[in-house]
Every structure is written in structure tokens, then in C-alpha cells.
Amino acid sequence: MQTRRVAVLALFALVATGAATAGTPFTAVFSGTGRACSGGLYVRTQTIEWNSSFSICQPSRYSVLEKDLAKDHGRIAFRLAARSRQCRYEVIEAEQVSTYGWSVQGYPSLEAYRKRALPGWRHSPRDERMVLSCPMVRLD
Q: How far apart (Å, rounded) are the C-alpha atoms in residues 120 and 78?
């Protein structure tokens, strides 16, 4: 009886440890500011949605490309599985810049996201390189 009890307690300890290290999915609600960025970004456990003045990304499944959620300076990048017709962005990146302030960028393609640091890529007038950068406030 005592051995069985110890085994059950050990099993509960393992399950609790596993649950703590598995990490919870990133979810958030952001509100945009300014003319081009008015609207909202909604990151849910299985879908992401970004509505702004010039692009409407309806709820879509996503994959996480990069994730570093440090306490005071988090950063996460999502790739949409499918885009609605009015959605201009395949990749959405959110980076924390203050307690509630975030910088959210929309990239038209995975290539644009991967080459974002190359000189002349980000501010190019070519459509396939156009990046929307929005200051947003995290509401939750």
C-alpha cells in the first residue's frame, strides 16, 4: 500500500513538472494606433487575426517561426497558414518595446521576413518588400 502511494505521488510530481515546462501558448490582444494601424491584432491559441486600415487578415491558423518571450522584452513571429484575399501579410512579428507597448510588423512573404535585416530590403519601394510597422498597445 505504501509503495503504491509513493508511486502515485511520484507520477503526480512528474505530470506537474511536465505541465510547467511545456509552456502555455502565447495569446494576446493588441490595439493599433495611427491611421494605417488602427484596428486590432488578436492572437489566440489556434488562430491569429489582424485588422488594420489597409489589410484585413481574417482568422487563420498559424505556426510560430521564432519565440523569445523574456520578461521585459518579448518577441514572437507568426506565419499564417492561409491568408484571406484582403490580407497583405504572410508573416506577423510582434516585439515588446515597453511595459504595454509593442511594435508589430507585417511582412508580405516569408522571404521578406527572412531578409528583413539586409540593407535596402526593408525600405524598398517594391511591393514584395513592403513592410507595415505598427505601434500597438497590448490590452490583456
A: 23
Instruction: Give the model confidence (pLDDT) of 12-53 as tens digits.
Output: 333 333 333 347 889 999 999 888 789 999 999 999 999 988
Q: Which helix (H) or strand (E) holds 69?
A: strand 62-69
Which pLDDT does position 71 carry in this prediction? 72
Please, are residues 92 and 76 in contact by the beta-carbon 8 Å criterion?
A: no
The terminus-to-terminus CA distance of the chain in angstroms comes to: 48
Residues 6+ apart with CB under 8 A from 108: 88, 89, 90, 127, 128, 129, 130, 131
pTM of the complete model: 0.79
pLDDT at 10 over 70: no
Rg (alpha carbons) of the chain, rounded to whole number: 19
Hey, what amino acid is at 18? Answer: G
The length of the chain is: 140
Going across the sheet that includes 101-107, the strands are 56-60, 48-51, 40-43, 28-32, 132-138, 101-107, 91-96, 74-80, 62-69
